[in-house]
Amino acid sequence: MVSPAPRVGVLALQGDFREHLAVLRELGAEAVPVRRPDELVSVSGLVIPGGESTVMDKLSRAFGLREPLLDAIAAGLPVYGTCAGLIMLADRVLDATPGQQTLGGLDVTVRRNAFGSQLDSFETDLKMPVLGDPPVHAVFIRAPVVEALGEKAAALGSLDDGRVVAVEQGNLLGTSFHPEVTGDLRFHDHFLSKVRAA
Ligand SMILES: NC(=O)CC[C@H](N)C(=O)O
């Protein structure tokens, strides 16, 4: 018997949510934008896209989504955050703007805009043992890095200088970079396997 396509949401307040919807659909998921609490309860996994974490934070509160998102994460909903989405999932943030809040869940400290203004964006290949070969072609855009990893979180991949840029903790997954723009579907596939197993 073919199992039904998982229904997966992409937080669509701001940022590159359309690209994530397209990748998830390519992988056979029923992917829907999430902007309201009733849309959140209808999904069995959620992607938080790249964009601007300060704006996403404000909009999530304005749309009445902050508390439902906190509840969903606490209840174990599988969530994958890329770039600004990783910041939203981090328990601790360096270089946050005054008053900026995250949702948390990942026991990590991230630094926003960690590559400074000289190097706003770049691409590199990263070994990612959890995904096997070949390495992942990673696109970084005004990206955060994981500066410190708490006990509960595990690193999935790092830059050559050792800075962690992909993490996992139970049903939560976070990357500093943007797999949704490269055509490499493995991170989303890995995420969907968490959704199916949850
Ligand atoms: N591409 C991105 O998501 C950039 C993240 C952005 N610099 C932030 O702080 O939220």
TrEMBL record:
Catalysed reactions, semicolon-separated: L-glutamine + H2O = L-glutamate + NH4(+); aldehydo-D-ribose 5-phosphate + D-glyceraldehyde 3-phosphate + L-glutamine = pyridoxal 5'-phosphate + L-glutamate + phosphate + 3 H2O + H(+)
Residues of the active site: 83 (nucleophile), 178 (charge relay system), 180 (charge relay system)
SUPFAM superfamilies, sorted: Class I glutamine amidotransferase-like
This enzyme's EC code(s): 4.3.3.6, 3.5.1.2
Alphabetized Gene3D superfamilies for the sequence: 3.40.50.880
Pathway the protein acts in: Cofactor biosynthesis; pyridoxal 5'-phosphate biosynthesis
Residues at which L-glutamine binds: 51-53, 112, 141-142
Assigned keywords, A-Z: Glutamine amidotransferase, Hydrolase, Lyase, Pyridoxal phosphate
CDD domains assigned: GATase1_PB (cd01749)
Family affiliation: Belongs to the glutaminase PdxT/SNO family.
Functional summary from the UniProt entry: Catalyzes the hydrolysis of glutamine to glutamate and ammonia as part of the biosynthesis of pyridoxal 5'-phosphate. The resulting ammonia molecule is channeled to the active site of PdxS.
HAMAP family: PdxT
Assembly mode: In the presence of PdxS, forms a dodecamer of heterodimers. Only shows activity in the heterodimer.
Name by which UniProt lists this protein: Pyridoxal 5'-phosphate synthase subunit PdxT
Organism: Gryllotalpicola daejeonensis
Lineage, highest ranks first: Bacteria, Bacillati, Actinomycetota, Actinomycetes, Micrococcales
